[in-house]
Amino acid sequence: DTCKMRCALPSxxxxxxxxxxxxxERRLRSLHVxxxxxxxxxxxxxxxxxxxxxxxxxxxxxxxxxxxxxxxxEVDGIDLALHEIQADTVLEVALAKAKSAHEILQRPLLIHxxxxxxxxxxxxxxPYTKYFNFTVGTAGLLALMRxxxxxxxxxxxxxxxxxxxxxxxxxxSLDRYGYTGEVSLTGPxxxxxxxxxxxxxxxxxxxxxxxxxxxxxxxxxxxxxxxRREAPNVWNDFAAWYAARETETS
Length: 250
Prior knowledge:
Layout: E1 26-27, E2 31-34, E3 44-50, H1 54-65, E4 72-79, H2 90-105, E5 109-118, E6 124-125, H3 129-135, H4 137-144, E7 152-162, E8 168-172, H5 173-177, E9 181-183, E10 205-206, H6 221-230, H7 234-249
Parallel strand pairs: 3-4
Antiparallel strand pairs: 1-4, 2-4, 5-6, 5-7, 7-8, 7-9, 9-10
Helix pairs in contact: 1-7, 3-4
């Protein structure tokens, strides 16, 4: 049966007081992404990204920078301690966190969550990827997949954007692109990235749909950056939608 664990590691962040909507916010480095503009008078669009992960802020910055347009975007990262529900899909978790963050901040914002889904494990670990990283690890996942013929896997990247009217707009890579790779038979050989237990599961992923045959942790820096820029992903999907939306309403 599908692995349904009822435990998860607490997300790092700043403890938030909910009384009177009082919050403590830790602002990450603000990232200004300047797209091509035909006018110096173009207004800046501030996108609030609720995350304590600088890597995610950088990833959104990259996606936004690839969008041509007439607007200037500022990505404002804010770290909040949000309750993470137990759910069967990554999108459900992201949606709940986005709604919770919106209740606190009362402004448009973005939430991202992700998990690795393995077809042979009925899409586990999925929303429990963080738990798997610290308890099952690379060797544990490879052991679970040892006798599996179906090695298909994909990252369920979910982005939820809450607009000024409180409406949620969701983007899910697994729903749109399905399984985009597989779990390696051996794991990474000489990993160049994804160090630390928090990336243990990701080290096993091979993005075969992008034409790569090694674990993403092993590929050259050139191939890795090309994958980040060009592979179909929810980051680019959101950035294109957001840029078009802001251009239409400006």
